[in-house]
Design goal:
Number of helices: 19
Number of domains: 2
Distance between the termini: 52 Å
Radius of gyration: 25 Å
Strand content: 15-25%
Helix content: 25-40%
Oligomer: single chain
Structural class: alpha/beta
């Protein structure tokens, strides 16, 4: 993207940079300027503290409109999106960018909307999450003790809460859990927090000293939504790495208390998005932290845990900047590109292959990983389905609209894991399925989607779940079943359910960068196709480029010329699947 630094002077939040912001009111009739700021590239505690303060102020400022945009000296992606949306026709085109620098400038920009400060306790790292919760409810800036000592007197802000020394473990035997349970009583249970959003953001136990701000920069969205923020283990059979002396299962007990409270407060009127991801090094088996639970099962356990409480996960959100601003972009119903021109295929005795570009179901892959793959020149040369969960329209509607506007006839959009949010549909309480349908129908319609090709669950869909999906994804349902709890789960047999195609999603090989190996694995499946009948193979592909898929298909044709198959788009795939099932009398 061409730089626009002639009109943008970066706002640096690192210590030692100059302070000042233009404060003149815009002339009558002129749109307010967009203030931009840049986080330091330093990786230290001071930069962490400044990023935390910046994110909390941004969440408050942007409640009154898209006013404050954060850039990064270390990550070029925020500038990529800013440049894109400031182009002619973009929703930020014409917005004057204003020069600013320093936290003093942000405090001044916030003005009376900023009502005070909350100071967290470095001796209890979980209090940085409690402080973020309080900041959203009380309109406060989150400060470390060091930042508070250096700035509060000059800013003339009152201290709304000082969390230092408040939590000693007397309640639960865990200072971490004492802090969260106090916050449940003070803020969550009384209904002061959002019922639609929870945030699973890593606390300061490891991140502050290392200057890791990936979760910090997302907190503007938590503050803007007045959401409850947590960092707890979904496992009850081993202690977390950050609190090894707690009574076994204390983290999980607190986790359930949070979910139960939000479920009760929501009163069956809305589902709850859990934005964020568990900390690998605390709760799963990674180098430095031996655990009985590997990362992927820990992800699945989290979804298993939250689904009965009407919770769905927006799994990976780290390094996702400016959600409180992007979320305010204009929204209108999106439309899919018509299918590539040509005579529609008719059913024949061959194998039909479709490729599903998966795992863009959360904000981070949508924001950070997809752009270089989407911008690749090979995109559009073969039919691909792109999985984008429509609940993300609530967070990054402008980014999703950009993908739709630049799609080719060979690009089709479907949901990803599992629909409009990642949950286990079989775990939803039966009396809550109408709410599930209402939530999904609304967002599927806005996204112009009718296919759910990657439903993740512990067993094949129940009749009630299939009935629910038929309401919003009547043109296709495919699932991956992972029976981690040993309940006898298995994938569904290929079928039509009241006209809705139902089948299994093939999830291996999902790494198509090794084209020869992927081609051989696909060939092995094709070779098992019953003679004299069509066969259908929907392949999941994770975070690879269109060029990788092209190479795999070319390698398949070269290595196995005897294979008969048609490469089709996902809409054609499910249309032919339906015709085949109808022909079989299913």
């Amino acid at each position: 993207m061409p730089a626009r630094l002639s009109t943008l002077v970066m706002f640096a939040c690192a210590f030692g940079w100059s302070i000042g912001v233009a404060t003149a009111a815009p002339p009558r009739g002129e749109e307010a300027p967009l203030v931009a700021c840049t986080l330091s590239a330093k990786a230290d505690a001071a930069s962490y503290d400044e990023a935390m303060a910046t994110a909390s102020i941004q969440g408050i400022v942007n409640r009154r409109g898209p006013k404050l945009y954060v850039l990064s000296a270390a990550n070029p992606r925020p500038k990529y999106w800013l440049d894109l949306f400031r182009k002619d026709g973009g929703w930020l085109a014409g917005r004057r960018l204003e020069e600013a620098s320093g936290l003093d400038a942000l405090v001044k920009l916030a003005g009376d909307d900023l009502r005070g400060a909350v100071i967290w306790d470095p001796n209890v790292p979980a209090t940085v999450n409690v402080a973020t919760t309080i900041a959203g409810v009380e309109d406060a800036v989150v400060l470390s003790p060091e930042l508070a000592a250096a700035n509060l007197s000059r800013w003339k802000l009152k201290v709304i809460r000082d969390l230092r020394g408040m939590f000693d473990g007397k309640e639960t035997g865990s200072r971490k859990n004492d802090a969260y349970r106090w916050a449940i009583r003070e803020y969550l249970a009384p209904g002061k927090c959002s019922n639609h959003r929870l945030f699973l953001d890593e606390d300061a136990a490891v991140t502050r000293a290392a200057g890791k701000i990936g979760d910090v920069v997302t907190r503007d969205w938590a503050v803007a939504n007045r959401a409850f923020v947590l960092d707890l283990s979904p496992w009850g059979d081993e202690p977390p790495a950050d609190d090894t002396s707690q009574t076994l299962g204390t983290d999980l007990e607190t986790y359930r208390m949070i979910l139960e409270t939000v479920f009760r407060n929501a009163g069956g009127k809305e589902l709850t998005e859990l934005s964020g991801f568990f900390a690998f090094h605390k709760y799963s088996n990674v180098p430095g932290h031996p655990s009985a639970h590997d990362p992927v099962p820990t992800e699945w356990e989290t979804v298993w845990l939250i689904s009965p409480y009407n919770g769905y996960q927006n799994t990976v959100t780290g390094d996702c900047f400016n959600q409180s601003l992007h979320s305010q972009a204009p929204r209108k119903p999106l439309r899919q590109q018509p299918a590539a021109s040509g005579k529609p295929l008719s059913l024949s005795n061959t194998s039909y292959l479709a490729f599903f570009m998966a795992d863009y179901d959360s904000t981070m892959p949508l924001y950070e990983i997809l752009p270089p793959r989407w911008d690749a020149p090979e995109r559009g040369k073969l039919p691909l389905a792109w999985g984008i969960n429509p609940n993300l329209l609530e967070t990054y509607p402008d980014i999703i609209a950009h993908y739709y506007a630049t799609a080719t006839p060979n690009d089709t959009f479907t949901s990803d894991a599992s629909a409009a949010g990642y949950m286990n549909p079989n775990r939803i309480r039966p009396d809550q399925l109408p709410l599930f349908v209402e939530h999904n129908r609304r967002l599927f319609r806005e996204a112009g989607m009718t296919i759910a090709p990657m439903v993740l669950d512990w067993d094949q869909p129940s009749p009630a779940v299939k009935d629910a999906f038929r309401e919003f994804s009547p043109d296709g349902f495919a699932t991956i079943v992972m029976d981690l709890h040993g309940k006898g789960g298995k994938p569904p047999a290929p079928q039509l359910w009241k006209g809705m195609p139902v089948t299994e999603l093939i999830s291996e090989p999902w790494d198509f960068t090794q084209s020869a190996g992927a081609a051989d694995m696909i060939h092995a499946r094709l070779a098992k196709r019953p003679a004299g009948a069509p066969a259908f193979f929907l392949n999941r592909v994770v975070w690879v480029t269109p060029a990788d898929v092209i190479r795999c298909v070319e390698e398949l044709r070269k290595r196995h010329p005897e294979d008969r198959f048609e490469l089709v788009d996902i809409r054609t795939f499910f249309r032919l699947f339906r015709e085949d099932q109808q022909r079989r009398g299913h």
